[in-house]
Amino acid sequence: MNRPLILVSNDDGYQAKGVRELMKCLSSKGEVIGVCPDAPRSGQSMALTVNAPLRVRREDDVEGMEMYSVNGTPVDCVKLAVYSVLKGRRPDLVVAGINHGSNASINVVYSGTMGAAFEGCAFGIPSIGFSLTDHDPKADFAPCLPFVDALCDAVLSNGLPGGVCLNVNIPDSKIAPEEMRLVRACKGNWSDEYSEYTDPQGHKFYWLTGKFRNDEPEATDTDQWCLDNGIVSVVPCMLDRTAPDVILPSWLNSFLPYKA
Amino acid sequence: MNRPLILVSNDDGYQAKGVRELMKCLSSKGEVIGVCPDAPRSGQSMALTVNAPLRVRREDDVEGMEMYSVNGTPVDCVKLAVYSVLKGRRPDLVVAGINHGSNASINVVYSGTMGAAFEGCAFGIPSIGFSLTDHDPKADFAPCLPFVDALCDAVLSNGLPGGVCLNVNIPDSKIAPEEMRLVRACKGNWSDEYSEYTDPQGHKFYWLTGKFRNDEPEATDTDQWCLDNGIVSVVPCMLDRTAPDVILPSWLNSFLPYKA
């Protein structure tokens, strides 16, 4: 392959430490260009800006690599990179992150980091999202960089099947992981998701919070188990959400086709 | 079953015709409560409001059924319904829509309507999203209501497998459909996605637009084919995004586990 073109995005915004560490880690692999939200956009999933103007702004380079900000979501960033910033050149790899915070288990469906990776996948480009289980803006990304490095090299060399991208989660940065495994998303969800307040005018308002509940704590083949055990998890994810026939109940196959 | 509790949401906002027609259609089946965004939130996918206060407001009843608005996304609406509005009662069914516009093919991943349905699914509640292929605010929903009625009855009686919800798309309202089929999401994507403008100060801005491109126009087992042929499509969708082992390339299974 010629010198690869690598598009980097995230959901924590162009100023986040995680995306800058990611770009530096990738810099030797090809031409790296960052297109990131102009401010934090966590929890934006695959949201896109439907009915408002989007602007692209050139920011200061990151150690010689171009960085652009967009006043939109991670999906907007990837779309505008492909349609405008990259001037018709197609990236060989889309890498999102490194997110400040885990996107294991159910978090993958809400994650803006993974939104960017899924959008890369929708363009048919091999795409990976990386997340570190540490929300600290100054988190130490050094222990996870060998895994980022190795996996990006492997995907640049081998590609990924159409419609599949990778969700990579890295344990808390206080643990130096020694292994990276192929696993599935853990079943689980959040509980106690809102703090309730009363404003000075006596009206209630709610603020998102919550505790993660692991619904299969005994299973050792999940991303959450890996994180709990100091192992980097790689979950291959499908863009297509169609459920396979084998899990459908017989009543649905009897009910449909339905004639009015 | 006792009189079922049915939660209705959407992404077009509590004032949209589609959600009101949906609530009226469901009214005879149980207690129907609407919790919808306070304004249109199309293309919000499973976005949630992470770092801002959320408020719930009681709106005027819809023909005797309670309607609430939330200053957030469709996912926020479903979460706040479960955590607050329904006062600890668990819905027997979550129904989202009826969306003004198709959510077939790749649109399912961006759709706020389907975001609400996936969120109901994350709570373990049988959930369905309905979308009509007509963006007109005054679209005629009458031809699709017999299908909404029949499918909601069937799901209330039989339930759905855990982690599976239904994405139902209805052809343009100028066609009265005669059939509803179980199919898969069509492969396809959008092209030419941005109109480019220059503001009075000479700065560029971009506005989302685009043309849908069907990548498998010959396939007759897809939702897009159904819509193009006047048939209502039902695609069972997975909340879990983990790709099945069978589609993974051999290099990935050789590369992982990787030891640093």
What would you call the quaternary organization?
Answer: homodimer
Order of helices and strands of chain A: EHEEEHEHHEHEEEEEEHEHE
Helix content of chain A: 10-25%
Q: Uncertain segments of chain A of ≥5 residues (pLDDT<50)?
A: none
- Alpha-carbon Rg of chain A, integer: 19 Å
Mean pLDDT of chain A: 96
Sheet with the most strands, sense and barrel status of chain A: 9 strands, mixed
Shape of chain A: globular
The tally of helices of chain A reads 7
N-C termini distance of chain A: 55 Å
Quickly give the structural class of chain A.
alpha/beta
Produce the secondary structure layout.
Two copies of one chain form a homodimer.
Chain A lengths: L4 E5 L7 H10 L4 E7 L18 E7 L2 E6 L3 H12 L7 E8 L6 H4 L1 H11 L4 E6 L12 H14 L5 E7 L8 E4 L5 E4 L2 E5 L5 E5 L2 E4 L8 H6 L3 E7 L11 H6 L2 E2 L1
Parallel strand pairs in A: 1-2, 1-5, 2-4, 5-6, 6-7, 8-13
Antiparallel strand pairs in A: 3-4, 7-13, 9-12, 10-11
Helix pairs in contact in A: 1-5, 2-4
